[in-house]
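Progress against Task 2.4 (sequence-to-structure conversion) is shown through the following example record, which the project officer requested during the mid-term review.
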Amino acid sequence: AKRRPARRAPLCPFSPLLSMFGLPGGFGSRGFQDSFRCHSVSLLAAEQQRDASRLEYSDKIILPPSCLEKLAQLEIQYPMMFQIANPRAMERKLHCGVLEFIAQEGMAYLPYWMMENLRVSEGDIIQLRSVNLNKGSYVKLQPQLTDFIKISNPKVVLEQSLRNFSALTKGQTFRILYNKKKYDIGVVEVKRHGGDFAPGQPQAVCIIETDMQLDFEAPADYVEPPRPAKTPTPPSASPLSKSPVLQPMGAPVLDGDSSEEEEAAPSFIGSGFRLDGKAIKPPKAKASPAAQGGQAVGGGSGEAAATRLGVRIGPSGEVLSGAAPSGGQTLGGGAGGAAGSGMAGVKGLNASAGA
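C-alpha cells generated for the chain above:
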C-alpha cells in the first residue's frame, strides 16, 4: 500500500491568526509583512559617502536583500508599495516605495520626515506590509509656511519634487528641497481612480505615472490681514450735498430778451502787425447786393432798372436750365419805352420758344 506523504506543518502555527489581524509573521493573501529596526537614511549616506538629499527628500526606503527574495517568491506586483506603521501607535501609517535592497538584515532606512510622521526614533521597531494602491486622481496640498507660496511658480516646483515620491497618504506631511531651503507640505485630501475609499481603509494613492489634479490650500501659518474699519462719511462731506439738484433754484426770469444773450462776441477786437514792418491794409468793406451787380426788378429808371432774364421756356411751357442768351430781354422796370421793350422782349422770347 502506498503511504500518503505527511502534511507539512506551517512555519508558525499562529500564521492564520496573525494574518487575520495583520500582524507580522503571516503571509495572508500572499502579502509581505515583517518588522524592522528603523534608522535614518542620513546615517547610510554618511557611511557610504552618498548624497543625502537624494535619499532624504523622497518616500523611498532601503530594505535588506532578504526582503527582495521574499517579495520575488510572493510575486509582488510592481511598483512595490508598502505600508509602514508604528506598533505603539497603529493609527499612524504611511505609504511608500522602495529604493534599494542593501540594508543590513533586520534594519530599514527611512527618510527622516517619515520618522517624524510615525513618531519613531533611531532603532525603534516599525512594521512593514506590502499593499496595492490605486492611481490617484486628485490631491489637495497645504504648505506649512507662507514662504512656499512666495516662490515664482510653486506649482511647477511641487510637480518636479513629487517625481521622487511613490504614494501620498491623507494626513501626512512630506518634505521637499528647493534652492537649498526645506519646505514641509501637508496632504489634506486625496482621491483615487475607481471610486471612493472603503470605510476604515487608509486613504492613500499611488502617484507613479498618473495624471492627477493638484490643488492648494492656504498655508498653515497664513493670517489674513485685518480689514480697515469703515468710518461713516459726514453729510457735509458727501458729494451729493454739492449737487445743484439738491440746492434751491431761483424763479425763472421771463422779461428779458434771450436774443441779446445769444449775440456772438467779436472773435478779435485788437490790432495786428506784419512781420515785414509794412503797414496793414484796411479790410475791405462788404458791398451791398445792389453794388455787386444785382438788378432790381421794376423799381429803377432807364437802363439801370432793366433786368436780364436767363431762363428759357420750352415748347410745352416748362422752364429750361442753362445760361441766359446773349440777347436777354428786360422786364419792365423802367419808365416809358423801357417797360414796353421789356414786355416785348418777353413776348418775343415766348414766340421763339413756341416756334
